[in-house]
Amino acid sequence: MSEIYALLDYTDDKSYVQPLIESALHKHLPSLHLLDNNNPATTPPLPSTTNLLTWTSYESLDFQTLLSNPTTNLFNAYIIRKALIRKHYLLHTIESYVKKNPGSVLKDATPVGVEFEVDYVEFLDEALVEAYELVESLERNEGVEEEGGKGREWWILKPGMSDRGAGIRLFSTMGELQHIFEGWEEESDEEKEEEEDDDDEDEDKATRSDGEEEEKEEREDIITSTDDKEKKSTGIITSSLRHFVAQIYIPPFLLTPKPNTNNPSNIGPRKFHIRTYVLAYSALKIYVYKNMLALFAAKEYTPPSSSDFNNNDDPTSEPPDLSAHLTNTCLQSGIHDGSVIPFWNLPESFIIDQTKVEEWYSQVCEITAEVFKAAVSGGRIHFQPLPNAFEIFGFDFLVGEDGKVRVLEVNAFPDFKQTGEEEKELVAGLFEGVVGVVKTFFGEEAEEDERMVKVLDVDVGGF
């Protein structure tokens, strides 16, 4: 068997993720040679015939070199996968596929939605000219005033290219939607002023600096500060992210903790979503990692009402509290106890039957396979599987009150750290399963792992 080398530099949440990948590599490829990425001078150039696994951030991948060695170089990301990971592309991908395949499970497995582009709030009306379903719904809602608008059809707004829950808002009228964009434009103006002030301070400090190293440290402090602000903010700059998706808000299936279970906040019924890690390998095999997660909202669920979200008369008001509606843990502050639960542990902690959980899992597998079928059916323009690549995606699914599972979004390079320390072993198991599959690229024998469930195996060739 030929020697195998690996270049590993997983920069996202490195302290959490990289040790888990290293452990999986050493466990399943014990003869692997791990290259020292911190000291490239000590690593001699490898001939093109060398078996090389590259596992880094997307930006660090040398695609030209990797593509030049399709039989020896394996890397951890497809080059083009917008059809999956951009919300507006995913919506279009599914809609196009369902039109050609009306019997597909995807017909009822995604919320009704529209996509539109808008740079500035004054052009919002023009942007919605072809969003017939949305406009008609908002017009109907204008006449629904009883019980604080609880009889309205609510919509959820998502920037097409954001992640970690940034920019998600709820609305039910045109006035509420317009107010959302007005608020973002005000935030954008304030951020620009702050950046100009920071630039002025940076120039002053650099002028007074006694040396190059001090100037570098000051720049790093500013960058770190800016990154922290971005992570905590739930707003966006509208002119920078002009693609948006609006989807009908699906009334969720709620889970109530069982009596005497660990429920430190004494929280009642809560909304949740299912996080599923999916491995796409070569061109094209799809595996669902069976050990899924249930991510819960921070607060007890209450249906949306206009009294909570209609603050159009106060342009200085804070964004509405979405803690009962958003299940993305990176938006939750304070204690996260009970926010992340292993999916298969739900019957132990919540009032739910095991058969129902198994039914949801079956739907997840079926929908996942169909999403990838849809992605490769569009001429492979926005999703191009490669024989010498693999990628881990984070699929988010919502269970509606009708018990049906719907796919919400797909994330590349998912935020594993949000899983937390308690469920770190679950993430470790994922990487073990991934290595057990992808090592076959190098001629190694495949390992049976019941946690990695193959849901699709099609030959779509390569590029």
From TrEMBL:
Basic and acidic residues bias spans: 219-233
Region ranges (Disordered): 182-234
Residue spans of biased composition, Acidic residues class: 183-204
Annotated Pfam families: TTL
GO cellular component assignments: P-body
UniProt-recorded name of the protein: Tubulin-tyrosine ligase
Species: Orbilia oligospora (Nematode-trapping fungus)
